[in-house]
Specification:
Elements lengths: L3 E2 L1 H8 L3 H9 L11 E2 H15 L17 H14 L5 H23 L6 H31 L4 H25 L3
Helix pairs in contact: 1-2, 4-5, 6-7
Length: 182
């Protein structure tokens, strides 16, 4: 079975003119390949939907249930958009993708609820607070320890005092984080 049709052959099979077929292609109802040929899978879905719409209303419509009833309309709209763009070869592929997406979304929501994952904004705020605490602690060193550093006689003494002071400040911050306070 071939995967593509010429536009003329597709129009002939659908029983419509070539300009009418072009209208459906421009509307996104029929997907094309990169070379401009009609994708058979997309064409068959469109033709089947068209024939079902044109058929007399003697048979009951097939009900489709969404994984999430509240999002059924959105899911159907997304499914139509995805099919119109030609991303999936079949409707079943698109539905499987949608159902997988909805299941993954529910999993992420559950993980967020049980605190297994965190929102980026919350994490950024916590990290920002930590950086602010480190900055404040380090900026306070000159004012608090200038007299002690001033009494040093050699560069080695200044380095030793600064190393000690910075180490004490960082250790204090580590203790604050371990205790959950600043």
């Amino acid at each position: 079975m071939q995967d593509t049709l010429s536009r003329s052959e597709a129009a002939r099979r659908a029983g419509i003119s070539r300009p009418a077929l072009e209208k459906h292609i421009r509307a996104g109802r029929i997907a094309l390949t990169a070379t401009g040929e009609v994708r058979v899978a997309s064409f068959d879905l469109w033709l089947n939907d068209r024939q079902n719409r044109d058929a007399p209303a003697t048979r009951a419509p097939v009900a489709r249930e969404s994984v999430d009833g509240s999002a059924a309309a959105d899911a159907r709209d997304a499914l139509k958009l995805v099919e119109a763009e030609g991303v999936f070869e079949t409707r079943a592929d698109a539905e499987r993708h949608r159902d997988s997406f909805i299941a993954r979304l529910r999993q992420v929501e559950y993980e967020r609820e049980v605190k297994a994952v965190a929102l980026i904004a919350d994490t950024a705020e916590a990290v920002g607070k930590e950086y602010a605490a480190v900055r404040s602690k380090l900026l306070s060193i000159p004012a608090e320890h200038a007299p002690r550093i001033h009494r040093c006689k050699t560069i080695a003494e200044v380095q030793a005092v600064l190393t000690e002071v910075v180490t004490e400040a960082l250790e204090a911050l580590t203790r604050d984080v371990a205790l959950g306070a600043h």
